[in-house]
């Protein structure tokens, strides 16, 4: 089957993308508005970009329901700061509550029951229940499309990591203690418990077929 995206409903294109770009890690992003209202929302278009400096990106999309921008994007553009909180299985349910399209004056920390903790270098709070937090400052926002289900790319530099002590060993994170989850399509998520190793070969080690 061959599909030309321009010939199909954008909602179906979105379904296709989230079905094939899998599994996706989840950026649980906390921000704060200029009025001091806390915001907490999950985004599954999320990845790392650079280690020098440590840089990450995620993509908040324009709401298909009303064509408005996400509060997260508005807050980051206004303040230049945010925190990415890693989603472990034990906070999956409150994370999902934060995916509700609440009005801008609603505090998702309160709605979800998650605990805000003061950050060291940025104003947005961290999620206490998250095992890893990354305090970030805004580097750049790339606006790709203002249309419904269009999106922006938010790029941020990590200023500080907060990691639960027992997860950390020689700069490696124990996945069996982190229990991260990933996003598939629709309402489906995955656990990262079924893993396998592949040692990266060197060019001289490859054998001719």
Highest CATH level, the class: Mainly Beta
| Helix fraction bin | 10-25%
Task: Tell me the overall shape.
Answer: globular
- Total E-strand runs: 13
Query: DSSP helix count?
Result: 5
Rg calc = 18 Å
Structural class determined from secondary elements: alpha+beta
> What gap, in angstroms, lies between the N and C termini?
31 Å
- CATH fold description: Pnp Oxidase, Chain A
Average pLDDT, all residues = 95
Let me know the largest β-sheet.
7 strands, antiparallel
Low-confidence blocks of residues: none
Could you give the order of strands across the largest sheet? 2-1-5-8-9-4-3
Name the helix and strand elements from N-terminus to C-terminus, one letter apiece.
HEEEEHEHHEEEEEEHEE
Can you name the CATH architecture?
A: Roll
- For CATH, the homologous superfamily is named as Electron Transport, Fmn-binding Protein, Chain A
Can you describe this structure?
With 209 residues, the chain is of the alpha+beta class. It has a single domain, classed as Electron Transport, Fmn-binding Protein, Chain A (Pnp Oxidase, Chain A). Helix content is 17%, strand content 32%. The chain is built from five helices and 13 strands. It has helices spanning 10-20, 71-79, 92-97, 108-112, 175-178; strands at residues 27-32, 38-43, 46-51, 54-58, 81-86, 116-117, 126-127, 132-143, 152-163, 168-169, 172-173, 181-183, 189-191. The strands form four sheets. Strands 2-1-5-8-9-4-3 form a seven-stranded antiparallel sheet, covered by helices on one side. A two-stranded antiparallel ribbon has the order 6-7. A hairpin with a 5-residue loop joins strand 12 (181-183) and strand 13. It is globular, with a radius of gyration of 18 Å. The mean pLDDT is 95.
């Amino acid at each position: 089957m061959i599909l030309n995206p321009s010939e199909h409903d954008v909602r179906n294109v979105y379904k296709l993308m989230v079905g094939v770009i899998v599994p996706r890690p989840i950026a649980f992003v906390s921000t704060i508005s200029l009025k001091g209202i806390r915001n907490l929302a999950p985004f599954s278009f999320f990845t790392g970009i650079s280690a020098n400096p440590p840089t990450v990106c995620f993509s908040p999309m324009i709401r298909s329901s009303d064509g408005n921008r996400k509060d997260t994007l508005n807050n980051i553009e206004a303040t230049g700061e945010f925190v990415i909180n890693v989603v472990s299985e034990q906070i999956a349910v409150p994370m999902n509550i934060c995916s509700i399209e609440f009005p801008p004056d609603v505090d998702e920390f309160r709605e979800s029951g998650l605990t805000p903790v003061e950050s060291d270098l940025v104003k947005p709070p961290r999620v206490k229940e998250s095992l890893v937090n990354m305090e970030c400052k805004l580097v750049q926002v790339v606006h790709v499309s203002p249309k419904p289900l269009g999106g922006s790319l938010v790029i941020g530099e990590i200023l500080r990591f907060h990691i639960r002590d027992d997860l950390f060993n020689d700069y490696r994170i124990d996945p069996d203690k982190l229990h991260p989850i990933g996003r598939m399509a629709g309402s489906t998520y995955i656990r990262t418990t079924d893993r396998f190793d592949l040692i990266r070969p060197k060019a001289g080690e490859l054998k001719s077929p």
